[in-house]
Design a protein that fits this description.
The chain is an alpha/beta fold. Helices cover about 35% and strands about 25% of the residues. It is built from five helices and eight strands. Strands 1, 2, 3, 4, 5, 6, 7 and 8 form an eight-stranded mixed beta sheet that branches. It is globular, with a radius of gyration of 18 Å. The relative contact order is 0.17. Bound molecules: guanosine-5'-triphosphate and magnesium ion (MG). Magnesium ion binds next to α1. The site of guanosine-5'-triphosphate (GTP) has 22 residues, from α1.
Amino acid sequence: MTLVNYATREITCKIVYYGPGRSGKTTNLHYIYGQVPADRKGRMVSLATQTDRTLFFDFLPLDLGTISGFTTKMQLYTVPGQVYYQTTRKLVLQGADGIVFVADSQARQLEENIESLQDLHANLAEHGVDARTVPLVMQYNKQNLPRELILDVPTLEDALNFRNVPSFAADALHGPGVFETLRAVSELVLRRLSASSGRAAAATAAPSRAPR
Ligand SMILES: Nc1nc2c(ncn2[C@@H]2O[C@H](COP(=O)(O)OP(=O)(O)OP(=O)(O)O)[C@@H](O)[C@H]2O)c(=O)[nH]1
Ligand SMILES: [Mg+2]
């Protein structure tokens, strides 16, 4: 749920990194945190188990600077991918303005990716969100692994990207694809926000006429 504060001219959006366990959601946030200058980011909060699996969520607030006169902030979250954290995933997903689906490109993880995508759709439906319209970007992560272990991008597109949303090959451990993904989802979110605020402004400026 985007927060627009007209008094302070601030926009705050929520982006959720979703996907199966160990696909690299937390790694995306760590990479972003490591690259963004200190004055553009807040403290990254990670609630992880001893073995690095996300237990509840990761949280990273980012400052994108001023866009159309508004200070624009993105709050990045990751869900825990492990199957039994279903309730937490649903909670973290609530109010998301944009979603990055981080798929694990390893061939043996294909079924997990499909299940996680179905789980995303089910959770969106439970929140009353239309999965066909929510800003979504796909990331095919771990493309740096040996060719024989991973599926190529066209195969992953066929298997996972039936909405034909923007997609990026990535290696979140070293960076390729990470900022491209973040930029794409941010653009989708802001474009949707500007379209809806345009509609709201038009409705205020020209209230529909009463039927004769
Ligand atoms: N080779 C390679 N390894 C990666 C990449 N991204 C993440 N990893 C590794 O995959 C493992 C899991 O990464 P995480 O970022 O913790 O995965 P996650 O999606 O947050 O997992 P959960 O919190 O359990 O849902 C770690 O050992 C990472 O170092 C990548 O692009 N390439
Ligand atoms: Mg994690």
